[in-house]
Structure formats: structure tokens, C-alpha cells
Design goal:
Blueprint (H helix, E strand, L loop, with lengths): L25 H16 L4 E3 L9 E4 L9 E11 L3 E6 L9 E6 L1 E7 L5 E7 H16 L7 H25 L9 H32 L1 E2 L1
Antiparallel strand pairs: 1-2, 2-3, 3-6, 4-5, 4-8, 6-7
């Protein structure tokens, strides 16, 4: 298995719509394994192939607390969606640090194929329903964030800060500018956004569960 690069907004490749998978075999199984490893490392609970620059309809999800219940959905489609809706705060690994409240059907029925091409159907509710709808939107439409001008500015500012932190971390480990002191303190400072990101991800999972439990509205 290998870690894949997760594209980040506003990379234009995120706007590409994914195509159906028509051939199954070792390549698909390897891609699913690599996507799963990438998702767990991020860390996240769902990832669409579009986010790793593979524009095919492939999704991996694991909403379990123990992170040992991986589910792969290939060519998924929603067959049925409930009239009841849930309001949840959602984030995206391709737009780190940004969360929006999104109202979606609380339950859906999905048809998809597994890594060997076998067709299956699954009734989804709770966090799984939220996640599968989020990822299907990603591969169908790409990551097309069209928020208000204020939110667009927030996204760009946060992304610039993350890139700057990454550059500082690289400079710190490769010698950098001596006047800023030894590399070890710089490295700890540069990793701070990563630590915050992991904590935010844990908070997002909690927020999902809390929203489904207490903020469901019809």
C-alpha cells in the first residue's frame, strides 16, 4: 500500500467529474487499498478517488470508532432517500479546516459494486448516510465550493497559512535561515497546524454524531 497525495482546494483537478469504473481487477483493488491507507493517515472517515487525482467513481469509507470496518463503494448510486433530513456540520479533506452545515436526507439506500465488480445494495443511516452522500457529491461534481465571498476569503486565507507552515517546516529541516534559530523549535512550531488539524478532525466526527442525534429535523 502507498500514501497518495490529497488534492487541496482550489486545485482545478478537484472540479473534474469522475467516470464509471468499467474494468475490475488488481488495479482497482490496489487503488482502494491505497485510498484507505491515505484516508486513515489524513485522518478522515471518507475519501473519493477524485481527491487523489483518479477521476473514477470510487469511494472508501470507515465511520467506525475502531477504524477497522472499511467499506468500498464503486459506481455508487442512491436508489432512495428519506424525506426526513439531518443537519450536520461537514468538512472535507480537500478543504482542511473549513466546515459548513449541510442538510441531507437522514437515510438513503445505495447500490454499488465491490472491488470485484459484484453488485450490492445497502441501507445507510446516521453518519454513514451523511458520509456516502458527501462523497458521491464529490465524485459527481468535484469539490465545487461556492460559498459567499467572505467564506471564500476564509478558505483562501487558511490554505495560504497551511502552505506557509509547510514551507517553514521544510526550511527548518533543510537548514533554513540561521537567524531564526535551530531547526528543532521551528519544526515543533510548524507542526502545530497538523496537530490542530487532527484535533479538529476528531471534533468533526463528534459533531457529526451529535448533529445526527440532536439536530435532526424534518
Amino acid at each position: 500500500m502507498a500514501l497518495l497525495q490529497i488534492l487541496e482546494y482550489p486545485d482545478p483537478r478537484l472540479k473534474k467529474a469522475a467516470q464509471p469504473v468499467t474494468e475490475f481487477g488488481p488495479r482497482v483493488r490496489q487503488l482502494v487499498a491505497d485510498m484507505a491507507e491515505t484516508m486513515y493517515e489524513a485522518p478522515g472517515i471518507g475519501l473519493a478517488a477524485t481527491q487523489v487525482d483518479v477521476h473514477q467513481r470510487i469511494i472508501v469509507i470507515d465511520v467506525s470508532e475502531t477504524k477497522d470496518q472499511l467499506q468500498a463503494f464503486i459506481n455508487p448510486e442512491i436508489l432512495w432517500a428519506s424525506e426526513e433530513t439531518a443537519l450536520c456540520e461537514e468538512g472535507c479533506l480537500s478543504v482542511p479546516g473549513i466546515y459548513d452545515e449541510v442538510r441531507r436526507p437522514a437515510q438513503v439506500k445505495v447500490r454499488a459494486q465491490d472491488v470485484d465488480g459484484r453488485v450490492f445494495e445497502l441501507d445507510c443511516s446516521g453518519l454513514l448516510a451523511v458520509c456516502i452522500q458527501h462523497e458521491i457529491t464529490t465524485y459527481r461534481q468535484g469539490v465545487r465550493r461556492d460559498p459567499s465571498a467572505l467564506k471564500q476569503d476564509r478558505i483562501r486565507t487558511k490554505m495560504r497559512k497551511r502552505r506557509a507552515a509547510t514551507r517553514r517546516a521544510r526550511a527548518g529541516t533543510s537548514g533554513g535561515r540561521a537567524r531564526r534559530g535551530p531547526s528543532r523549535p521551528r519544526r515543533r512550531s510548524a507542526l502545530t497546524p497538523a496537530v490542530r488539524s487532527r484535533r479538529a478532525e476528531a471534533a468533526r466526527v463528534f459533531a457529526y454524531s451529535a448533529a445526527i442525534a440532536t439536530r435532526t429535523r424534518v
